[in-house]
Amino acid sequence: MSQLQLAILLGMTVALGPLALDAYLPAFPQIAADLNVDHTDIGLTLSVYVGALGLSQLVGGPLSDRYGRQIILLGGLFVFAVAAAMVAQASSLNEMLGWRLVQGMGGAFCAVSVPAIVRDQFHGKDAARLFGLIGLVMFIAPAAAPTLGVILLALADWPAIFLMLTGYAVFLAVVLKLRLFRHLPAKERVKTPVSTLVTNYSLVLRHWVTMRFVAIQALCFSAMLVFITHASFIYQEWFGLSNTLFSALFAANIVLMASLNIVNRYLLRHFEAVSILRVSVLLQFIALLVLVALAWVGAPWWVTAGCIVTAVGFMGSIIPNNMANALEFFPHLGGTAAAMLGATQFTLAGAISAFSTTVVKESLLNVVIVMAVCSMLAAILAFGAPRAVRREVAKNEAAANAAVLPRPAAPN
């Protein structure tokens, strides 16, 4: 299977997450009215989904190492499809929250399988390039998701969005079974006792270079999720924009992410992935500092939106480089390492997102301050990452060379 074909199939799989997060954003006002709750309460359905998406990866990752990627990925799609159909039938906020929790569990088994499959086949810059190519494919989903949601709302009520998710999950399961797993080279499974499915996490936790990258991605993703959670409020309530303009601005985020992703693939020919990562995280932080200043002075919507698009767009170069570095040191425990990355990313982001909706008073300034704080912490960690990676790689290479070089002959 060519790298492009693999990227398309894995990109379609990764797209499941953005569809579940973004497609129903334009429906927030309608869902709130139907369930007789506040607009802010509907944001909890995002936080619950993301939290389940994170924690459940801690189970799915080690299981995929032991039992194989196929059974975990297809099983996750089945759970996701059933839960999405049940969300469409929800008649109360609590019922919707419960099924979104189950949907997140199914989505987690899908999400953790993709980086593990990539690590099975590639490492280093090759892995970063493939992650970037996957990103280009899956960027279609978050770009189209709000527009798709608007179209479905024009044709039917909000449950149609979740029925669409059910249909996509079923379609994806068939395609992956017939195209991906039939042609993907088999990866040797980790035949270890079931008890080590938990203890293997200590290997990842003790690898401080990997954990640095895990923290960077979790914080950058948290900043983006805070925006996604409050995107409807910012554009539709704070600035009073229409559904169509809201969808267009949301798509602009993805266009810039895709553009920087393409630039990143070119830069990888000349620079190390970790160096590009450090610059990207710093530039995102600067963009968010400017955004805080704009919110403070009450800048018009088009200026604020431009700064939001810039800040979110840098995820196009942050994610592929960071994921490649985070998984670099665990070729035989790709599922476990990917689970730690995904679990930390989504759990922390879900907690911060929930904090921003339940504790922080919802206003434009408060939302962008939360985003900027997350980005600041990520920038602090990113500045130490290049030196840490070089030392670790050099140490690993020295150990490998010592193992293969012949011992010097004994003197006569």
Automatic annotation (TrEMBL):
Alphabetized GO MF terms: xenobiotic transmembrane transporter activity
Alphabetical list of Gene3D superfamilies matching this protein: Multidrug resistance protein D
Pfam families found in the cross-reference section: MFS_1
Record keyword Transmembrane present: yes
InterPro entries reported in the protein's UniProt record: Efflux_drug-R_Bcr/CmlA, MFS, MFS_dom, MFS_trans_sf
TM region positions: 46-64, 71-91, 97-118, 130-155, 161-181, 213-235, 241-263, 275-296, 302-321, 333-352, 364-385
GO biological process: xenobiotic detoxification by transmembrane export across the plasma membrane
UniProt record similarity statement: Belongs to the major facilitator superfamily. Bcr/CmlA family.
Protein name as annotated: Bcr/CflA family efflux transporter
Species in which this protein is naturally found: Marinobacter psychrophilus
